[in-house]
Amino acid sequence: MAKQKIDYDLIVTIVNKGFSEEVVEASKKAGAEGGTILFGRGTGIREKAKLFNIVIEPEKEIVLTLIDRKKTEQVLESITKSVQLDKPGKGIAFVLEVERTVGINHIPDLITDE
């Protein structure tokens, strides 16, 4: 079987704490194999809230989804619908083109050495 080069994108989704599993499930339903969840905190101008005059920095979850570029639009659309990214305060997602990958060994017939 001839080896085929796969072009990848990285979908980065940043949501409020507790919503990362919904992002991963939505991406899997649309064709992704999974994702990586990282934890962070918001520092935007609208991120800080106060409780008894103490600043509370909201916790965020960041989902990294490495995806075959052919599936990017359908996965991004699924994530957007699932966690309502089109509504204010729900989170953001953006796509980065991936120039090179190493270590994706579970699909060896499709990977080529460059």
Tell how many strands the DSSP assignment holds: 6
Counting H and I runs of at least 4 residues, what is the number of helices? 2
Specify the CATH class.
Alpha Beta
Kindly report the average pLDDT value: 84
The CATH topology: Alpha-Beta Plaits
Low-confidence stretches: 108-114
Strand order of the largest sheet: 2-5-1-6
The chain-level structural class is alpha+beta
CATH architecture: 2-Layer Sandwich
Distance between the termini: 18 Å
Helix content: 10-25%
Q: Shape from CA axes? A: elongated
The percent range for strand residues is 25-35%
| Helix and strand element order | EHEEEEHE
Q: What is the alpha-carbon Rg in Å?
A: 17 Å
Quick one: biggest sheet? Answer: 4 strands, antiparallel
Number of domains: 1
Can you give a write-up of this model?
The chain is of the alpha+beta class. It has one domain (8-110): Alpha-Beta Plaits. The protein contains 2 helices and 6 strands. The protein has helices spanning 20-29, 72-83; strands spanning 8-16, 36-41, 49-51, 54-56, 59-68, 91-98. The protein has a 4-stranded antiparallel beta sheet, with helices on one face. Strand 3 and strand 4 (54-56) form a beta hairpin. Helix 1 (20-29) crosses helix 2 (72-83). The longest helix is centred in the C-terminal third of the chain and has 12 residues, at 72-83. The protein is elongated, with a radius of gyration of 17 Å. Mean pLDDT is 84; it is low at 108-114.
